[in-house]
Amino acid sequence: QSALTQPASVSGSPGQSITISCTGTSSDIGLYNYVSWYQQHPDKAPKLLIYEVTNRPSGVPDRFSGSKSGNTASLTISGLQTEDEADYYCTSYARTTPVEFGGGTKLTVL
Amino acid sequence: QVHLVESGGGLVKPGGSLRLSCAASGFILSDYYMHWIRQAPGKGLEWVSYISRSGDAFYYADSVKGRFTISRDTAQNSLYLQMNRLRAEDTAVYYCARDRSGYSDDYDIWGQGTMVTVSS
Questions:
Q1: Residue B24's CB: how many other CB atoms inside 10 A?
Q2: In this predicted model, what pLDDT tens digit does every residue of B16-46 receive, in sequence order?
């Protein structure tokens, strides 16, 4: 069981917006602004999308955005595209262990 | 171009050992914290271990503590993971990853992964 809770799946149509939540505790997401998000296509390595809650590495489209409220972080993808269909993982620095991963969310673009 | 390339995976019997390698190019590996992260077939990501920039601090997930050892060779610009007393539950794709900042535990460069299968 993952320390961070994500929905198993979400779906949306091209052009729509979706949000993936990542719920932790006051010892990880609630305590640190060190939440990151990754995109993983089948049989590929994960790719960093968001770091430190809201920051995008160069090359990541601004359709991807991150936020946090209390113990829950969120990844929003606006203007969904078919190539966004992938698995998405959140992570957070935690007080008791170096890093925790969420269980992952499968995004289906209908 | 910044790259990480893992090697050394394969099929091993329970109780056996394997040594994974991760060759870095385009950057100096010892300038960064480096991590191993694994993914069991059809499952999510699991952090395994890290080594500090200085090379004198290590940390392991409880699931591998006492069995796995992380190390690096600055001359070879490579990272290693020595895996002993392997179990079926260690079966996974193993990725090496570069820690972007050293304080926020996010990974900006990943290798392609190497598959480790533990089975009799």
A1: 24
A2: 999 999 999 999 999 999 999 999 999 999 9
